[in-house]
Amino acid sequence: MKVSVYDTYVPKDDNNRMHFDILVEEGESVENVYKYGKTYLNQKGIPDFELTTNECNFCHMETVSVEIEKEIRDKGYYILEMENCN
Fold first, then answer.
1. Residue 80, class by beta-carbon neighbours within 10 Å (0-12 exposed, 13-18 middle, 19+ buried)?
2. Element (H, E) at 12
3. Which branch of life, at top level (predicted)?
4. By the 8 A CB rule, do 2 and 71 touch?
5. Across the strands, what pairs with 5?
6. Model confidence, pTM
7. Can you give the residue ranges of every domain in the chain?
8. Those residues with Cβ within 8 angstroms of residue 15's Cβ, 6 or more apart along the chain or in another chain
9. Rounded distance, CA 70 to CA 63, Å?
10. Over the range 48-70, which residues count as b (16 or more CB within 10 Å of their CB) and which as e?
11. What is the pLDDT of residue 48?
12. 3-state secondary structure of 26
């Protein structure tokens, strides 16, 4: 499966910022990407944060593993945690 990768940076309370990628099926709307990111942030205890192009931008396309493809087919997205996500 070919996916779109959205590079995302969100400020945290402790002067750090979270860095994660949102992976979605090629052609997914940006509105849905932001919705998926908001769901993830709520799970991480960062409610009421609205993603915009200031925090979340299309980065590139790539082919993903079978495991990631399955999660995207099941949930609509996959989050790849990079920095300060815990």
1. middle
2. none
3. Bacteria
4. no
5. 23, 60
6. 0.94
7. 2-83
8. none
9. 13
10. eeebeeebbeeeeeeebeeebbe
11. 87
12. coil
What's the confidence (pLDDT) of residue 20? 98
Rounded to the nearest angstrom, the gap between the alpha carbon of residue 55 and the centroid of all alpha carbons in its chain is 10
Please give the structure tokens belonging to residue 58: 């299309």
Q: Could you say which architecture CATH assigns to the domain 2-83?
A: Roll (3.10)
What is the per-residue pLDDT for 12?
86
Average pLDDT per block of 10 residues along the chain, 86 residues long: 97 89 97 97 92 95 97 98 95
* Helix, coil or strand: residue 27: coil
Residues across the chain: 86
Sequence-separated contacts (24+) of 47-52 with Cβ below 8 Å: 49/10, 51/8, 51/10
Residues 6+ apart with CB under 8 A from 73: 1
